[in-house]
């Protein structure tokens, strides 16, 4: 019924008054009534009637403007008669328009307290869509809401159960643990660390190896330089930036560690090819052991690796079992096993 009303009023733009829907069948003024499809269709019909009246009103206004230009050529009496007739028509159409607007306002106000106040109302409106390809949307959306409610309920129950579970106190990694999940990475802490922390770490490493002596100095400010003396075999300069190793330089035991100004020389390479090669390998080890998240462990691992050079000239190569090959001792130490290898015998 509503569809037929809408179809018949669809062509009422020129005659809105005669095609207005019957108030007896559409409900008239029903304040607070439920928004049934019939009432919504009646509101749409009244809206079309308003649009038709407005179109007719503006069309008459436009005709009056065109007529006034043409009437300039005729006499004054004809002009006055035409103007009075046009004004009467405009007044009639305007009264009709105002009447339609009041009727539409009354109908809309009766629906406004209910329409669009909740999700359920919008869901019901979706079911009124006459398009055949959208008729399933109402059912699908309703099912979606039901499943969302279920998921919310189950997640709430799961959160309560896991939150009170004893698994939180075990060693098992708990992906739902807020403290572990939100813990920020400690990369920035490796650079700006207190000097006491660096000194304590170097001191503990110094105590770990009896034949390796570590000396900390800070000629360039807060960042430390560690001088390494390994037995009577070699000396090294380790440049630190916080707890990160920035540069490694290895020289022979008898080579000077001071520049011409009497300060630690951290740039001049060794004069001996053996220690130049050891420097290259130590730089590779520095990069290998570098770990931004475990800076303490990386420094300890590096010095442990460097300490394995204490038998540089005595331990034969693991592969060729020769102490000297190509005029060089085994200058490579495997990172994990610390076994000596020649450069060309590396696994
Ligand atoms: Zn070898």
Automatic annotation (TrEMBL):
Intracellular or extracellular location(s):
Nucleus
Q: Where is this region: Disordered?
A: 1-33
Note the InterPro entries from the entry: Mediator_Med27
- Top-rank taxon of the source lineage equals Eukaryota
Q: Could you tell me the Gene Ontology terms of the biological process aspect for this record? A: regulation of transcription by RNA polymerase II
The keyword Cell wall biogenesis/degradation is assigned to this record: no
Q: Which UniProt keywords apply?
A: Nucleus, Transcription, Transcription regulation
Q: Name one GO molecular function term.
A: transcription coactivator activity
Per UniProt, the ranges with Polar residues bias are: 1-27
- A Gene Ontology CC term for this entry? mediator complex
Record family assignment: Belongs to the Mediator complex subunit 27 family.
Q: This chain belongs to which protein, by name? A: Mediator of RNA polymerase II transcription subunit 27
Q: Whose protein is this, by species?
A: Hyalella azteca (Amphipod)
Per the record, the gene is: LOC108681293
